[in-house]
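Data availability (excerpt). The following record was deposited with the supplementary files.
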Amino acid sequence: MKRNIAGTAGPRGNTSLIQKFQARWIRLVALFWLLLLAASGSADQLGSRLKQAPFLSTARFTYAGKASADELDSTYSPFSAILTEFYAISLGLTSVFLLVVLYWSVTLRRRVKEQTEQIRLQLRREAALEENYRELFENANDMVYTQDLAGKFTSLNKAGEKILGCARAEALGRSFKEFIAPDKSGNFQRWMESSLAGTAAPRCEIKMLAQGATHPIIEVSTRLIHVEGKARGVEGIARDITERKRAEESLRQSEERFSSAFRASPISIAISTVAEGRYLDVNESFLRLFGFPRDEVVSHTATELNIWVNVDERSRIEKMLQERQSASGIESKFRTKSGDIRTALVFMELIDLGSEPCALSITHDMTDRMRLEAQLRQAQKMEAVGRLAAGVAHDFNNMLTVIQGNTLMAMSRNNLGPELSKSLEQVSDAAQRAANLTKQLLTFSRKQVLQPKTLDLNELINNLTKMLKHLLSEDIVLKFNYAGNLPIILADATMMDQIIMNLAVNARDAMPKGGRLSISTTAVEIDKVYVANHDEAREGIFLCLSVGDTGCGMDSATQSRIFEPFFTTKDVGKGTGLGLATVYGIVQASGGFLTVTSDVDVGTTFNVFLPALDSTDSSAVTEVVDHARLRGNETVLVVEDDPGVRAITTLTLAKYGYNVLEATDGPTALLMSADRETIDLLVSDVVMPEMSGRRLADALLSSRPQCRVLFMSGYNEEMLADRTASGPTEAFIQKPFTPVTLARKVREILDRRP
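Predicted structure:
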């Protein structure tokens, strides 16, 4: 691209003009000087010449008249002197002038020469700049171009060929908009019109026609070219920003993904300054964890919010950040807005946000997990204790079976005296209470299958009075309020005991400084209005058991979770979180429902509603034992490793007329059965040495498929589900059992159709 330098005088033209100017001045001055020199001569020569002049001679006589020649000479002499002096002065001035002109001429020549050299140097510089500009124009990474006012390309560099996708020769004379994507050409045209009017934005982004699979995107900036104050064209620069736009889009997507992950993360995330801990942004999980609204967190420091329980922990993490640029898995304690202390794992990493060092922190709340882990450990300990309790209960049930069986057998005799009869009744009652105790142990170790029977709730509570008093501390007053003529209920007595005990324990723990525990019963009728306001309620007659305390009470948030398994407000190690969950489960299984009302620092009342038994319900009628119908003459093989249990079982069945065979273990029983033609029923303990009851039954049934099986054990049936009855010809009875219960079960299984 050549610059227009026409009309600029070169050094040779300047020198020629100056030389001509100097020559003319020299010739003019020399001519003037020669004329003066020739005109002056000497004064005498001039005077004599004047005297000899005819006109002067005639004039002399004419002028003088009668004057003599001497008078004429005397008249002319002053004039000659003046003229001579004038010529001398003129000659001197002319000489001085000539010297000045010569000096000026020399000086002018020197200046012209210097200016000529400067002009030559300037031209060389301009030529170099023009060459550099041409190289810059051609080799620029951006497209450099010029257009006429009609929008046609008048010049274009190599980068423009790449951007436009065609050779320079093809592009010259064409309009810019011919290379723009059709959907964007209108925007560019409007921008160009505004640019020519001087009102456009400095830059415009343009999507070009597709080159392959992509549409290049360029950024254009232009300015008008003015010549002599008039717009003659447009020059512009266009930069390919395709990669930049792709990078910006990738960055935008990355930021959007980070923002989405940041906002939606269930784990607390915050961005804060390292120096002060001033929060710049936090996600919703952070706000939920600490209980603050956003405006109270952003632009505030952790110190102002009093979040750190131990400020030294923050200093330790800050030091770790400076040394390692990150901190991982630091267990710390935090304080929420409500004052709760939460334990969390903190992960921090330094990030650069430009202004100052910042930290991206992730706070993983471990409080609930640690509580669950503690509850799991507690549950595992309770499981171990439960297994121990189950083992104790098994052995205890064997002894109780012997005690109860022999006591009842003795009580069935008619010749007992009053004192002996009373003593045997006391032994039987004690054995029954002991049996209930073992049932509670089994319930503690495993879920106990409910065995409902008709109950008088007032009587059941009275039987628990002594135990409740031992359970409560001396500063807690226990009060009862029983309603008279209560309807009976159908429920498991042991489970009812557990409900009352669990609620009493909860009330005791809610009154560490003492208080009042009230237990009351009443009959209520649930109507439609009550059902509409209580989701689990239903219409009918219910017996209401109320257990209330004057303890610390509960807020609504705690009340909404009290029946969740493993939820507890007690300290770690002081509760399993299963007490109220067990109560809820027993009540639901018994066909009832329960409600709770509580106020903080006032107290809590649990109302347990159990359906009242209809007086016409056949299940409420006490069954009269018909011993004659329980008798039989079938052959029964009794297998039991405990001698006492084996003896009372054999004695009971023999009393009811059965032909009884007894064995101490499985192998002995199989040998004994081989010599018998018929065995109608196998009564076997489940857990025995050498061979379990299940294996014995399978071996016996393989050769005697018509034989029936009755398993018995000190463990409950659920604990032995895979080792007990599995078909219609098999049944289970739990120790301890009474003779009547055993006889009824034997008759039931023998009369059952296969």
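Summary of structural features: Confidence is low (pLDDT under 50) at residues 1-11, 53-67, 616-623.
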